[in-house]
Each structure stands twice: as structure tokens, then as C-alpha cells.
Amino acid sequence: MDEANEGDRDGGRSAPLPFRAAVDALRAARLRPQIEIEPVPAPKKLAPFAYALEAAVVDGEQELADGRLVLLHDPAGHDAWHGTFRLVTLIRAELEPEMAADPLLPEVCWSWLTGALQARGLTYGEPSGTVTRASSHYFGGLAERPAASQIEIRASWTPREGLGGAPDTGAHLAAWCDLLAQVAGLPPAGPGDASVVTLPQRRGPQSR
Predict the structure, then answer these.
(1) d(Cα 11, Cα 129) in Å, to the nearest integer?
(2) Domain contains 197
(3) For the segment 176-208, what is each residue's pLDDT rounded down to a tens digit?
(4) Pfam families of this UniProt entry (predicted)?
(5) Long-range contacts of 131-136 (CB under 8 A, 24+ apart)
(6) Most distant CA atoms of the chain, gap in Å
(7) Domain span at residue 77?
(8) Where are any strands of DSSP class E within 79-147?
(9) What whole-number distance in Å separates Cα of residue 159 and Cα of residue 172?
(10) What share of the chain is helix, strand, coil (3-state, %, to 5)?
(11) Mean pLDDT lowest among 21-35, 74-88, 93-107
(12) Which of 55, 86, 116, 175 lies at a CB distance of 3.0 to 4.6 Å from 120, suitable for a disulfide?
């Protein structure tokens, strides 16, 4: 794919107007300052038009959680989506041992996703996804490392389209960042706990 077409896929001037509006709303979203976000190359085979963001919840030099949000658009519509737009996400975070041992953790994490969307007053359809809990235990030369657990949320949903055919992607991004912050263990954002994010924004040092 040549450079011009790639730009169109990411919201260039030749992309459909609803998709361009949806991408512009993502770029202008107001997010809490603990979340660092930047655009990344979008997948090319999932839809005719796509735009992707990566984000991380950072405390100093420690990364508490990270994720990716992809906006897909098919002007012809998609039977499985029941719409022309789809949001797809992956979120990962390390878990405290007490939380990792909770048998209801997958259900709780899924409720965080739906609750974040509902708290923003968003309407959506066809939600689907998985919540995976994984544990790592170290042996031999790595035996001194403590056991570690990680949660991974993979999900997708269809945002309802508004006037002009574009969904309120800025609000969906804010809800997604609420979920990312909650998975990272941050307290709920206060009224003034937000800042305008100008894309692209480069991440600082990370620690894994």
C-alpha cells in the first residue's frame, strides 16, 4: 500500500467524511494525565479504513497497564458489527496476588468494560470479548523472581453512529481510558484530572 493510500486509511482527505470525523474526535479527546497515548500503524486487513492508538498508564517510570484501541470502518457495513464502525481493544496489566486469586476476576473485569461505557452514557451494540488470567512461576536460574500474574482483556463493540454518520469516538476513547486506569489500579478521575492530549505523543521510559 502506498503512502497516500495509507494516509487515507488513517483519516486522510480521501477517506470518508464520517471516518475522518471519528479520527479527529479521537485526536482531540481529553484524557487524564497519567495516560500516555500515541498513534500506531493500524491493521490493514480488518476493514477498508482503520486507525489505531496505543496507551500506557504510567506512574513515574513504572508502567502499570498498557493497551491498544483500534477504530475500524467499513462504509458498506458489516453483518457481524450491525453497523459501519467497530472498536477493538486489547488491555494488559500485572495483578496483585490477592486480585489474581479472585475466582470472579474475569466477570469483574468484563463488568469494568461495560460499566465504563455506561458511565459515559454511551450506547453500543454487539459487544464480545475474552478475559484471560495468566500466571508465571520461575525456576532454575530465574527461581529468585517472584511469581507474577497478568490480566488480558480483548474486546470489541459497535459504537452507535450519531449525526453525520460518525460515532462519538472521543467519548468511547475516554471510557476506554477509564477502563485502562481501573485495571491499573488508579482511583477514579476527579473533575479536574484531565488534560488535552496532542497526538502524536511519545512515551517516556518504561519498566516491565
Answers:
(1) 26
(2) no
(3) 999 999 888 887 765 444 433 323 332 333 333
(4) DUF3000
(5) 131/105, 131/106, 131/107, 132/106, 133/95, 133/100, 133/105, 133/106, 135/100
(6) 60
(7) 3-188
(8) 83-95, 124-136
(9) 8
(10) 30, 40, 35
(11) 93-107
(12) 175
Reported confidence tier of residue 20, pLDDT bands at 50, 70, 90:
very high
Q: Other C-beta atoms within 10 Å of 177: how many?
A: 26
Q: Does the global pTM surpass 0.90?
A: no
- Look at residue 204 and tell me if it is in a domain: no
Residue 154 within any structural domain of the chain: yes
Find where cell 489500579 sits.
Answer: 185
CB 66 within 8 A of CB 89: no
Confidence of residue 12 (pLDDT cuts 50, 70, 90): low
Residue type, 73: H
The set of cell numbers assigned to 12 is: 486522510
In a domain, 206, yes or no: no
Helix (H, G, I), strand (E, B) or coil at 156: strand
Tally of structural domains, the chain:
1
